[in-house]
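tokens incoming
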């Protein structure tokens, strides 16, 4: 058991080793394969010559072992019949829509959250040799990481700090998928759907907050208006003629409009003077 533990090695690193460890049987099979390709030339060219695009790489296995030198491509490469097979790996950035996940936040609110993950294969050999299906594993890990990350935040943090949560999720995913040859480039939280009852409660709370702010603003306006009137009254009180001039100015303003009825208040002392004469 101790010897087995000491012999544990990464499969991708094993591919960098020399192919001399295949033994005599492997060497014989390789010679036979080369002989078959030579005897069937040029028909064997249709089966032995392969082409990969600029954005692809080919991981070649010979007798179950990775070939020395890692992935091949882009361009033309040659495989031996019967003993070699290859796997194409796409290096372009892929997009994965994380299905809506039911998440219980830190403040015990159930929300439905979905996200988008952008990732690519940065090491074709590792992505084939170290994991059975790198793309499927990355997608499952993205779903579980989304639930775990959002479960440690309150609702208001999820709604307001999406960017920081996305960056944290990207860092966690990138650390885990590095051993699979996957590079997570970006994570974006698309939508956070709240229950209908919670939406109504939040709308009522927001409306009440707006009404409270409106009342405070109106009260401050009334306070400033009262102070201005107090100051105006103090100025007018310093000159008795100022009040009469203000009164005449008000009458002038009213008379500028058509179809207006103006009532002139008369002092009681003025009327009592005519009463005494009669």
């Amino acid at each position: 058991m101790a010897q087995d533990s000491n012999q544990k090695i990464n499969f991708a690193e094993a591919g960098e080793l020399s192919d001399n460890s295949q033994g005599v049987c492997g060497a014989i099979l390789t010679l036979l394969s080369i002989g078959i390709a030579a005897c069937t030339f040029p028909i064997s060219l249709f089966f032995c010559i392969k082409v990969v695009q600029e954005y692809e790489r080919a991981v070649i296995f010979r007798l179950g072992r990775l070939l020395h030198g890692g992935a091949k491509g882009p361009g033309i490469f040659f495989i031996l019949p019967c003993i070699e097979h290859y796997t194409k790996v796409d290096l372009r950035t892929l997009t994965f829509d994380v299905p809506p996940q039911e998440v219980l936040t830190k403040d015990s609110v159930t929300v439905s959250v979905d996200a988008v993950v952008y990732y690519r294969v940065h090491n074709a050999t590792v992505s084939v040799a170290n994991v059975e299906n790198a793309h499927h594993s990355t997608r499952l890990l993205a779903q579980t990481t989304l639930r775990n990350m959002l479960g440690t935040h309150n609702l208001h943090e999820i709604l307001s700090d999406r960017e920081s949560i996305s960056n944290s999720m990207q860092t966690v995913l990138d650390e885990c998928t590095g051993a699979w040859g996957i590079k997570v480039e970006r994570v974006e939280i698309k939508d956070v759907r709240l229950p209908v009852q919670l939406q109504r409660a939040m709308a009522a709370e927001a409306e009440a907050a707006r009404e409270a702010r409106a009342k405070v603003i109106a009260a401050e306006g009334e306070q400033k208006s009262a102070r201005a009137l107090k100051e105006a009254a103090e100025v007018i009180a310093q000159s008795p003629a100022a009040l009469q001039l203000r009164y005449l100015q008000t009458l002038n303003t009213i008379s500028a409009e058509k179809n207006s009825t103006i009532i002139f208040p008369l002092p009681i002392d003025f009327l009592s003077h005519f009463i005494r004469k009669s």
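note: The first strand starts at residue 49 and ends at 52.
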